[in-house]
Amino acid sequence: MGQLVAPGQKLVEQQLADGRRVYSSSIPLPDELPDILVRLARWAKEQPDKVLLSEPREGARRSISYGEALARARALRQVLTGRYGLRKGDCVATLAPAGIDALVLKLACLSGGFVHAALPPFPFRDGVETEATSSFLENARPRLIVAPSGHPAIQGMDAVSLNDLAVDGSDMATPGVDESVSPDDWAAIFFTSGSTGAPKGVPITRGMVSSNQAAIAAMWPFVVETPPVLVDWLPWHHVFGGLDNIFKVIWNGGAMHVDAAPGPATIEATAKLMADVCPTMHIAVPLGLRLLLDRLENDDAGALALTRNLRAIFFAGAGIDADLWRRLAAFRDSHGDFQVLSGYGATEAASTITLSPAPLERPGELGHPLPGHSVALVDIDGRSELRVSGPNIAPCYLIEGRRIDLPMDEHGFYRSGDAAVLRLRSDGVAVFGFDGRLAEDFKLSSGVKVRTGPLRAGLLAQCAPLADDIVISGENRDRLVALVFPSPAGKARPNELSARIAAWNAANPSGSTAIARFDLATAPADRSKGEQSDKGQIVQSRYLRNHADLFEALQAGGGQAPVGA
Question: Domain AMP-dependent synthetase/ligase, which positions (predicted)?
Fold first, then answer.
């Protein structure tokens, strides 16, 4: 079995004349950065019958091969230009969920030089233009909107049904040639979550896609030597699933098997699908990873089916709590020959900014900058903001229909809004570590700053496995209060949960760390109100705004004070 990661990766430090330290990877970005459509055409020629993507369909699975995907995409491009008059640079907005039809439309846009914009399904569920949907449409300015058959948008917004875009053998007989494109051409528009305001459009150029995938392959040669086989549920209106994962598969000639979103009702089918297709890489978020471990930790046969060909489990380095990490590490040590990798990214960077240079030692590792990119740590009020420069950075935002500059510093580095630190691993490799989101920090009435990210992570570790999440409040107040989302174990042992928080307070007694009062959440965060992301994580700022009265009541003496056992 070949190398998992490129050997000898080092963090290269350079001190500039003004004293700023800039870091880069010792691995160079490859000189050759072919377009993603060129990569697809290569595999369509070399392995035309290999499955590119499969999806669930009426109790079975339906699949499309590389050769068929390219032929159908080129035929659909002809339909879009001939029937709907689309030209290079026009935007096609879609509500199609991840699957074969969505893939063919995405590839047809690449073939025609159209800009593909995947719209989030929830705001458009009623199929009419509202205050919630207008910002998406104003920023994307689509010439065409495409929706699944029967979607209300077909009537309410004059969307075109996917069924109307179906192509047959006669359409594929004369596909013509692909549109001439350049790396600066926009390939897609993705939208940020909008947790702190109206969603912003982020254009992704074709060059950003190429540099991202070429850099990943340079750092992680296993995705080239073992073309990735993914069982993936991540939504395609997010850059993680709809850009990075599907293009990682296409870039390296792998296969994606679209799965249902993780949940108690779907995890059995997920385990069976994994047993059938034997993934080489599992890309996870905490919600799905926790459910998968619940299902497989005590099932040796099921665990073997998952890990038979598995090279790596990957998650975003900032998003896993200490208890889940311990469970994952124990599962890794007990089953198979795979490793755990992580990374860090943003929509503004075509998904990826840093990746692991070696298997993880602990959660929170962000890794090294992608080849060809530079990262700077810049002091902001006693913390270090991670800033990045390189070919992955988007050209602008789309806000209120206008192109607006990204938040760049005077040196041309994108300001991520996240804090990071340099850590030295036990093997001597220096890596970046996540240190919280600067936007979540706040000050008490005393002027003392509360570092919400590290505080929340510490409390979750203290309360594991009794708490799934914690929302902390106290801006411009005298003390901190918290709402705890208990796990099933926490619901059964509330006194122990209280004692754990009391023990935390005893060890961390300052006003910026101790929790004066808390309560247990009686309902999950409401995704329809923006309180929960599509990855299953609570959007802290939105939850605090939506439940201001609850936190005011805690400040006034509601809930309970932490009491030791």
Answer: 41-398
